[in-house]
Amino acid sequence: MIDPAHPTTVDPAVVHPPTGAATRRGPLREGERVQLTDPRGRMHTITLTAGAEFHTHRGKFLHDDLIGRPDGTTIVNTAMVEYLVMRPLLTDFVLSMPRGAAVVYPKDAGQIVQMADVFPGAVVIEAGVGSGALTMSLLRAVGDGGRVHSFERREDFAAVARGNVETFFAGPHPAWTLRVGDLVETLPTTGVLADRAVLDMLAPWECLDAVADHLAPGGVLICYVATATQLSRVAEAMRDSGRWTEPEAWESMVRGWHLEGLAVRPQHRMIGHTGFLITSRRLADGVRPPLRKRRPAPGAYPVDGEGAELVEVVEGTEYGDRPISDRKVRRAAREAARGAQASAEASAHASVESSVEDPAGSDD
After folding, report:
1. pLDDT score, position 352
2. Which residues of the chain have pLDDT under 70?
3. pTM value?
4. How many CB atoms lie within 10 A of CB 319?
5. What confidence score (pLDDT) does residue 102 get?
6. Start-to-end C-alpha separation, the chain
7. Which residues on adjacent β-strands are paired with residue 257?
8. Dihedral (C-alpha) 187, 193, 199, 203: value to the nearest 10 degrees?
9. How many CB atoms lie within 10 A of CB 165?
10. Alpha-carbon torsion 127, 131, 137, 141, what sign?
11. pLDDT of 215-242, one tens digit each?
12. Which are the contacts of 329, defined by CB distance < 8 A and separation ≥ 6?
């Protein structure tokens, strides 16, 4: 809706903020998660609760002393230890939230959004939701006007992801649809035609044809895999399919730096290998991929059936996947559900405060 007094601008009174934006600004509210940093750089994440206390072996303070204060404040506990208090960024939230499955690290999620060209309003297929880390980045990228269709085989993982997403966005996101089931079996029943697809699973090569049937020509597919054998197998499956462009693969490593006066040097610890990313684009129906000109190196492919088994088995599980205990997943699901409820209450408080401070139709 256009403001008649300023035809080139939008009347802010009738524009709804994007989902989750209201809780990213303003004073700290009950039910919000905040990140505390002590003088040694140690971090704690807490959910602000009226009447609660934050304890360490070096003193305590009341949550009530933070509720209503601005973001980026400090607080001193009973032992005179000062804490910096900030709302956690998405990267902070992902690394501290309850988790069942391993999360996609922010460095990889950022590359997925960028290299898959996930744009506002895009329709995205996501398979392998895990704990919801990548889902939040995808929802941020597509906005309220896009769609993210997520598929997860395990109902307990889906419960953890739903709780985490609703905690971060302070309620259900209008662009998100989460389905429990196998992608190959469930996707054909949806009628979805997507612009982008992201597969974070053990055997993405099993889903290439199903994804191709529901991905628009020119659409981007990006897969996140953990091992080199998985990377090789999905690349060869893309080539054999004939429906994809020549795949490209890479990994990224992040190394922080120590900054203290003239003592500027790389940190001793770094985020090394987390996974490989491999991307390709959907060819139009009936189009054959151009013939590859380069020759594979000798020994690149098995001969006479030797080495045909490309799947490595680690500790009795396929593809090096480490089993996750049901107890851990149930605990993560409970924590995520509690966080979602608290975040929704904080969002409700924010909406009330916003309507009181700037009632609709008020004259300046």
Report:
1. 64
2. 1-15, 295-296, 302-323, 351-364
3. 0.79
4. 17
5. 83
6. 19
7. 266
8. 50
9. 27
10. positive
11. 999 999 999 999 999 999 999 999 999 9
12. 100, 154, 156, 157, 160
DSSP 258-287: EEETTEEEE-S--B----EEEEEEBPPTTP
Q: How far apart are CA 73 and CA 60, in angstroms?
A: 17
316-321 contacts at long range (C-beta below 8 A, 24 or more positions apart): 318/202, 318/203, 319/202, 319/203, 319/226, 319/227, 319/229, 319/230, 320/226, 320/227, 321/202, 321/226
Q: Please report where in the chains the tokens 């909406």 appear, as a residue.
A: 351
Is residue 304 left, alpha or beta, with left meaning phi > 0 and alpha meaning psi from -120 to 50?
left
Distance CA 46, CA 191 (A): 42
Q: What is the distance between the alpha carbons of residues 340 and 165, in angstroms, rounded to a whole number? A: 8
Structure confidence at residue 107 (pLDDT): 93
DSSP labels, 102-129? PPPPHHHHHHHHHHTT--TT-EEEEE--
Q: What is the C-alpha separation between 144 and 139, in angstroms, rounded?
A: 8
- Count CB neighbours of 291 within 10 A: 5
Q: Are 147 and 162 in contact (CB under 8 A)?
A: no
Residue 320 confidence (pLDDT): 47
DSSP 15: P
